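subagent[fold] <- orchestrator: predict structure for attached chain, return tokens only, no commentary.
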Amino acid sequence: MKFTKLFSLIILLTSMITFGQQKTKTDLSMYPKAKAGYTQKVITLNSLPNEDDYNVELFIGKKSSVDTCNNHFLIGNIEEKVVDGWGYNYYDFDSDGQIAGTLMGCADNKKVTKSVYAQPTKINYNSKLPIVVYIPEGYSLEYRIWKANDKLILVK
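subagent[fold] -> orchestrator:
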């Protein structure tokens, strides 16, 4: 009898430890490996009440030397793709690194090194799945969480 209780307790503790490990470790095996010259970035979101009220805005950029009087942006495209057989979304960013910007004449012609970003992308908030993004090596991925405003504005 004591052996049965002890055995049940060991199984219960083992399953609790295993469950805890599964919750903290995200399985990415179904996602494709990063192609040559690219890196896989993963964002894991915290669970929130009413996740439909939230969005995630992705910013992909790279450090570049630019002048101080113009606005600059990274030329590139982010494409949403689906993992075959799983239905999970992931995002693939392609860019040749070209930067464009406004063409104002700069009196001082001073240059600074700063992050220059591509057009941001908003996606739905979902804490149940990771956000997987493939970007060129040397680029950065940042994100911002948006919450819907509680006020409803009617337009006539």
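orchestrator: received. Logging for downstream: The beta strands are 38-43, 54-67, 72-74, 77-82, 89-94, 99-101, 111-117, 121-124, 131-136, 140-147. The first strand starts at residue 38 and ends at 43.
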